[in-house]
Specification:
The protein is mainly alpha-helical. It has helices at about 5-20, 25, 40-55, 70-80. The protein is built from 4 helices and no strands. Helix 1 crosses helix 3 (about 40-55). The radius of gyration is 12 Å and the shape is globular.
């Protein structure tokens, strides 16, 4: 399991590649950039969240704050916070 923020961000990018079926879109995403503004539709976000559960071995809480879902950075921060 990845231990650093950089490793978690990279694994999230790999999950995104799986969701989008290739690296072309994902390679253009900035870690701190808004996924919604980058064009990630809500259906793809749901697929990402399910894939992250599998990849990182946790389940999303029903009351997760919306800002956690904003970017690769915020998603990585959430994953790391779950380990503490």
């Amino acid at each position: 399991m990845p231990d650093t923020a950089a490793e978690v961000r990279q694994q999230i990018r790999e999950v995104l590649v799986g969701v989008f079926g290739g690296p072309s879109f994902v390679s253009q995403l900035q870690d701190a950039g808004s996924l919604r503004e980058a064009g990630v539709p809500s259906t793809a976000l749901v697929a990402l969240l399910v894939a992250m559960e599998d990849a990182f071995g946790f389940q999303w809480d029903d009351d997760v704050r919306p800002e956690v879902l904003r970017s690769i950075d915020s998603l990585a921060g959430h994953v790391l916070a779950l380990r503490n």
